[in-house]
Amino acid sequence: MSWRFLRDLLSGANKYSTGIGRIWVAVVFIFRLLVYIAAAENIWKYEHDEFECNIKQPGCENVCFDHFFPISHIRLWALQLIMVSAPSLLVVFHVAYRENRGTHHNRKLYKRPGELDGGLLCTYLISLILKTGFEIVFLVLFYKLYNGFKVPRLVKCDISPCPNTVDCYISKPTEKMIFLYFLVATSCLCIVLNLSELSYLIFKYSIKCYLKRYIKKRQ
What we know:
Belongs to the connexin family. The chain has 219 residues and is mainly alpha-helical.
């Protein structure tokens, strides 16, 4: 999979972010995207081939693997990265809309098209809410699909066509669990950063609106 588009998207959205938003972009790019490409992808690359059961019954091993891993960890992480980055497109499109609108009217309608105010602020807040929502949904999905954030060494399977309860072994469970904890931790960190930025922007512009009203009343 080529991640160039995602990298360009994050770089483009970074221009319109606050300080907290830039930290979020750095965390996603360095601690999630690069770790995924450089290490995690290779660890799960042959997970099906390295999944072994102590029986050679045709179809048993495949059925057991499908039962315990209905969706590959690595593909689910890839989907999570795409989904939590996609809301940044809303901000990029809104800024492009402002710039095109100014060009269409042959005059400068906005002093700075990328400044967070008015409609762009609402779009930015919506993107933060969507990012946070996607992060939470995927964490819950991980937990439900794999019965917690763990990678067991041994799983017992009694699904047909297995003739009885068989023992199946997952390769490199400790290494996989370390990366699982790391990626879950970075996901939680991104949630905290998104909520912090959301609170900061709401507080900042609430104070700004209050001061405007106060000055009008004084005048």
